[in-house]
Amino acid sequence: MLLVRAIIRPEKVSIVLTELLSAGFPAVTKMDVFGRGRQKGVKVGDVYYDEIPKEMLLCVIKDEDKDDMVKIIMRNARTGEKGNFGDGRIFISPVEDAYTISSGKQGL
Amino acid sequence: MKEVMAFIRQNKVSRTKEALAEAGFPSFTCRKCLGRGRKSVDLSLVRSLIEDGEIPLSTSAESLTESSRLIPKRFFTLIVDDAAVQKVVKTIIDTNSTGNPGDGKIFVIPIMETYRVRDGELDTDMDTLY
Prior knowledge:
The complex is a heterodimer of chains A (108) and B (130).
Chain A: E1 2-8, H1 13-22, E2 28-35, E3 42-44, E4 47-49, E5 52-61, H2 66-77, E6 88-94, E7 97-100
Antiparallel strand pairs in A: 1-5, 1-6, 2-5, 3-4
Helix pairs in contact in A: 1-2
Chain B: E1 2-8, H1 13-22, E2 29-36, H2 43-51, H3 57-64, E3 71-80, H4 85-96, E4 104-110, E5 114-115, E6 122-123
Antiparallel strand pairs in B: 1-3, 1-4, 2-3, 5-6
Helix pairs in contact in B: 1-4
């Protein structure tokens, strides 16, 4: 199992969630976050604005679904043809165990 | 070390907190989040919950107007020793289980290193964190 953490633009959340749902990934968690990237935030005049509001999507998936998931997020969270700075990032980390609280069962 | 990441109902946080403290795990992080699971949400049920005042209107209204329906949840996470994972998972399941869909999920994720900010010390053993 893998944990996918995608940090994306807030205005792209809705389309990404809809697309994930139609691709068969209904389970997602969304959180408000603030951050900056490698461009040190947005520079306006001499001032850097480095706490840019973003949304973080958390999703735990099977190993084999990784490529699909990443592709869907990439395609829908990107702005314009080539994408722009600030479109976000996707991080993937291993998950060792998963439990469903209602039944206490192990596994996704 | 492992991170135990649980997505639980928002009205269960205080009970989870107490149960974990009793089991010897006082430290945790909790934050608000919105989410959806594998089952689709029964909106009439959500509406009745709002009317009963069980979930605050502001957060739920915000999430329910979106095309993809998200329910307010709490994201509860703590970092423990490998040996303690089973105990923590069991405590969380016991306090949060109502037997209904929407009770939440628990994920166990490996943590490579932890540092204490106060003195910059590398912790290899979680016991020294307390």
